[in-house]
């Protein structure tokens, strides 16, 4: 089953995320997953 995630960001945050996404060639999903992976320390 497919799930959906939605959240709001302000204009400055959006532009920053869009720039990172574009530089790395990510989709929005890929950007979020990469961020989660970077934050995963294995701690509960």
Short description:
The protein is mostly helical and 44 residues long. Helices cover 59% and strands 0% of the residues.
Explain this structure.
This protein is mainly α. The chain has one domain. It has 2 helices and no strands. The termini are far apart. The model has no long low-confidence stretch (mean pLDDT 94).
What is the residue-mean pLDDT, rounded to a whole number?
Answer: 94
Work out the radius of gyration.
12 Å
Low-confidence parts, pLDDT < 50 over ≥5 residues?
none
Termini separation: 25 Å
Beta-strand proportion: under 5%
Helices, by number, come to 2
What is the domain tally?
A: 1
Largest sheet: none
What portion of residues is helical? 55-70%
Structural class: mainly alpha
Layout of helices and strands:
Elements: H1 11-24, H2 28-39
Give the tags.
59% helix, single chain, mainly alpha, 44 residues
